[in-house]
Each structure stands twice: as structure tokens, then as C-alpha cells.
Amino acid sequence: xxxxxxxxxxxxxxxxxxxxxxxxxxxxxxxxxxxxxxxxxxxxxxxxxxxxxxxxxxxxxxxxxxxxxxxxxxxxxxxxxxxxxxxxxxxxx
Length: 93
Hints:
By secondary structure, the chain is an all-alpha fold. The chain has a domain at 18-33 and 44-91. The chain has 5 helices and no strands. It has helices at 8-11, 18-31, 35-38, 45-76, 81-91. The N and C termini lie far apart (48 Å). One of its GO terms (molecular function) is protein dimerization activity. Pfam families: bHLH_ILI. Residues 5-59 form the BHLH domain. Keywords: Growth regulation, Transcription, Transcription regulation.
């Protein structure tokens, strides 16, 4: 059975237990889009962290693509610089 003692002496963070880490890993796994298809399979912490990093990378790529698309659309819109600035401010709220 895994040790449930505090990791304060190992990590320098008082009060973090293995149970707390497992709970946080479960919450992180639940945020992943593939979680619903794999909910019956318990993932290791390594798998959860790797999947989370991959998901965040994909999200960054999508944001970059959408930003480029928005820039092209705004350039073609015929709006003046002040109107474009207003649209950009509204989108970054």
C-alpha cells in the first residue's frame, strides 16, 4: 500500500500528502478532453501530465491560428485603426 504520509520533508511544502496529489491528478485528468473516453482506465501521473502538456500545446496552436485569422479578417474589414483597436480590446477582456 502506498505511503500516505506528508511529503513536507521531501518537497519542502508542508501538508501535501500523497492523497492530495492523487486528488489533484484526478481533477487534472477530468479536465482533459479525452477523459470521457478513458474514464474507466486509471492513468498514471506521468500519463496525466504528458496528456495535459500535449493538450495545452494544442490549445496554444489553436489560439495562434485564430489570432492569425483574426488579424487577416481585421485587415480585410475596412475598419480604421481606432475601430480595430476597439475590437481587439473587446476580445481581450
